[in-house]
Amino acid sequence: MFVVQDVRLDPDTRRAWSGDVEVTLSRKEFDLLHALIARAGEVVTREELMRTVWETTFWTSSKTIDVHLGWLRRKLGDDSRAPHLITTVRGKGLRFELAPPVRAEERVPS
């Protein structure tokens, strides 16, 4: 069982929860979430995701990841404009955050 922030994922039963609510995921959405949450706090490259989730090393567009990521974020209540669960690390990949990121406007001036 993986538990990060308020998301729980059980790979054995292929079930996921956001808070106390079970979230129904497609097979690919579940596999994408599993690939990210299993390495929470680390950047997972798009190449790694294509290899582990889609079991391919060849693709014509990374839009496949973006589409499934959009559906997954929606189901988990993660706003794509200000994500707190899955963030995009530009030029690197995706990261499932261990804690919500601190926004610039939330920082305390020193």
Automatic annotation (TrEMBL):
Annotated GO MF terms: phosphorelay response regulator activity; transcription cis-regulatory region binding
DNA-binding region ranges: 1-98
Alphabetized UniProt keyword annotations: DNA-binding, Phosphoprotein, Two-component regulatory system
Gene3D superfamilies: Winged helix-like DNA-binding domain superfamily/Winged helix DNA-binding domain (1.10.10.10)
PROSITE patterns in the record: OMPR_PHOB
InterPro entries: OmpR/PhoB-type_DNA-bd, Sig_transdc_resp-reg_C-effctor, WalR-like, WH-like_DNA-bd_sf
GO terms of biological process kind: regulation of DNA-templated transcription
Location of the OmpR/PhoB-type domain: 1-98
GO cellular component: cytosol; protein-DNA complex
Keyword Zinc among record annotations: no
SMART domains: Trans_reg_C (SM00862)
Superkingdom of the source species: Bacteria
Pfam family, one: Trans_reg_C
PANTHER family: PHOSPHATE REGULON TRANSCRIPTIONAL REGULATORY PROTEIN PHOB (PTHR48111:SF40), REGULATOR OF RPOS (PTHR48111)
Protein name: Winged helix-turn-helix transcriptional regulator
Organism: Nocardioides zeae
Lineage: Bacteria, Bacillati, Actinomycetota, Actinomycetes, Propionibacteriales
